[in-house]
Amino acid sequence: MKLKISLILFFAVFAKQVNAQQDEQMSMYLYNKLYLNPAYAGSRDVLSAVAVARFQWVDFKGAPKTQWFSIHAPLLQKSLGVGAHMVNDQIGSRNRTSVFGDISGSINLNKKKHRLAAGISLGADFLGYDFSSLNVNDQEDAIYTTRLNETKFNMGAGLYYYSEKFYVSASSPRLLEAKPTNFDTILSKLNSRHYFLSGGYVFTLNSMLKLQPAALVKYTPNTPITADVNLSLLIHDFLVTGISYRFHEAMAINLIYNIKNTVSIGYMYDFPINGLRTYQTGSHEIFLRYDFKPKKAVFTSPRYF
């Protein structure tokens, strides 16, 4: 059938173009780490909520549009962290809504307040495909009117080693390679396990400036390893500006403003450097974080991660 052949070609070309992106693409990974690693839960020492929205490949028909939300907090004198994260992602005719709960346990390793946390997440992906939204030549194609829905439970796990000025993270957000029962073989390939390794450090240059390099390495079996690298400059601990590079795909610029070490507002613009640059005008990502701090809390050093 024409539609079925078109779908197979689309997914084959699409996967090659984006280096096998299956999970949602994210540029502000530094500020949305709970989505990648459940061990991050509770690490900010306060009740913290994050919302991120991404508009990917603007002007590209059927391009991804994604919204994230996460919230987490420490318990039992920081030895336990709990949280939840949610994502809604739409790309072409496919929509995925995910809801996961997160829990972590951590220990203090030394007098420098280095901590090691291990975490797990449990939740479900709600998948939907509406093929009736596609443009086809054969209006009588049986698949044209098909709408498929699946609910797949999954779990993730990770380790998170951190202090106020650095972090190292290793995780796999979806350990179970669940295969849809109603989708055909080509769609079943969209459930591969993903692995993430990331880290960052803050170097103090002087009383006004700090340098913050960070990187995220992504791997899916049977596909090339890819990476995002970011270099940001922190000015007076309230303004952050930087540049990013996504391997063979895009460059980006970011700007983040911190208000009283409680509210953070950010924006990132990705501009393509691969073959897709002639079909789109880049990607936009906006970010908001709020740390709920007690009014009588004593002043603490800024948390960069």
What does this structure look like?
The structure is a single chain. β13 and β14 form a beta hairpin. The N terminus is likely disordered. This protein is mainly β and 305 residues long. It has three helices and 15 strands. The protein has a single domain, classed as Porin (Beta Barrel), CATH 2.40.160.
- The strand count comes to 15
Silhouette = globular
CATH level-3 fold name: Porin
Number of domains: 1
User: Order of strands in the sheet with the most strands?
Assistant: 1-2-3-4-5-6-7-8-10-11-12-13-14-15
Tell me what the CATH architecture is: Beta Barrel
Query: At the first level of CATH, what is the class?
Result: Mainly Beta
Helix content: under 10%
Distance between the termini: 51 Å
CA-atom Rg in angstroms = 20 Å
Helical run tally:
3
What value does the average pLDDT take? 84
SSE pattern, N- to C-terminal: HHEEEEEEEHEEEEEEEE
Beta-strand level of the residues, as a percent range?
over 45%
Alpha-beta content class: mainly beta
Largest sheet: 14 strands, antiparallel, barrel
Poorly predicted regions are 1-21
